[in-house]
Amino acid sequence: MPAKLKVKAENLHKSFTTGEGRLEVLKGVSFGVKEGEFVSVVGPSGCGKTTLLKLVGGLEKPSRGRVTIDGRPPDPSRHRLGFVFQEDSLFPWRTVWENVGFGREVRGMEGEERVGELVGMVGLRGFEHCYPHQLSGGMRQRVAIARALAVEPDLLLMDEPFANLDAQTRWILHQDLTRIWEEVKKTILFVTHNVEEAVYLSDRVIVLTSRPARVKKVLRVKLPRPRDKLSGELVRLRREVVDLLREEVPYL
Ligand SMILES: Nc1ncnc2c1ncn2[C@@H]1O[C@H](COP(=O)(O)OP(=O)(O)OP(=O)(O)O)[C@@H](O)[C@H]1O
Ligand SMILES: [Mg+2]
Predict the structure, then answer these.
(1) 26: domain CATH number?
(2) Same domain, yes or no, for 70 and 93?
(3) Residue nearest (by alpha carbon) to ligand 1 atom 25
(4) N or C terminus: fewer CB in 10 A for the chain?
(5) 192 and 247 both lie in a single domain
(6) Are residues 237 and 172 in the same domain?
(7) Is residue 2 predicted with pLDDT exceeding 70?
(8) Best mutation site among 12, 14, 15, 23 for ligand 1, i.e. most ligand atoms within 8 A of its Cβ?
(9) Nearest ligand to the C-alpha of residue 52?
(10) CA atoms within 13 A on the CB side of 77
(11) Residue range of the domain that includes 35
């Protein structure tokens, strides 16, 4: 039986009114994400990736078209969503433990031991009582991932979560995110500029056109995990995505 669709985006259009007039950002974007699937979205800078993620998370409303999670429009009272963003969004006055537990606290969720499990899962055991300023950038993003998972989300939405990290830390977090995803079995929609990251992490990669964004191509990455970033098939897929992006942005 084919896996159920977790997210369904149908003919999404989004325009913003700016000082200059109307800015058309998304122009008929449609795709699905299956339950438990890891799907990445890549596209030229400024094409509308973050806007798309916001529509899926219900933070913005589409101008036209429809997005559903489990068959219903995104609704914070119905869906539990986990967000991880590029910028460091931790609370500086809270420890690692308190940051991870934040969402559970607000929702009145029981089970302190789950916070401990997640801290361990992201490799931060021993740092529970540290404050964000005492951690490296990679460690802070690990806390952000644990915090997003702590609300037991139906769906994890990630917007360039590793963009500010050095290549080595990024590489380690890629392996860790793969392991975490296999462990928690969550559906992930992951926005990135980084083509290597997209093909390495994902079951499918959605390539967008430049603004106003449409779906240019969806590529399937059929390789089993753990993957080798330098395997012939991954390198071939990277090449294919880069070539597609170069059609949009010739100087890439
Ligand atoms: N609230 C808003 N009001 C007006 N314009 C907006 C708003 N949000 C986004 N935009 C515009 O929409 C376009 C797409 O923005 P978005 O952040 O979705 O792109 P992106 O693909 O995520 O970019 P990047 O690759 O730089 O992260 C940009 O031109 C941006 O200025
Ligand atoms: Mg963005």
Answers:
(1) 3.40.50.300
(2) no
(3) 45
(4) N
(5) yes
(6) yes
(7) no
(8) 23
(9) 1
(10) 0
(11) 1-79+155-252
Do 98 and 183 reside in the same domain of the chain?
Answer: no
Residue corresponding to tokens 């995104």? 74
> How many domains does one find in the chain?
2
- Per-residue pLDDT tens digits for 95-148: 999 999 999 999 999 988 999 999 999 999 999 999 999 999 999 999 999 999
* Number of residues assigned to the chain: 252
pLDDT of residue 20: 86
pTM value is 0.96
87 pLDDT tier (thresholds 50, 70, 90): confident
**C-alpha of residue 101 to centroid of ligand 2, in Å:** 27
Q: pLDDT value at position 1?
A: 57
* pLDDT over 70 at 151, yes or no: yes
Q: How far is the CA of 195 from the centre of ligand 1 (A)?
A: 20
pLDDT, mean of residues 29-33? 98
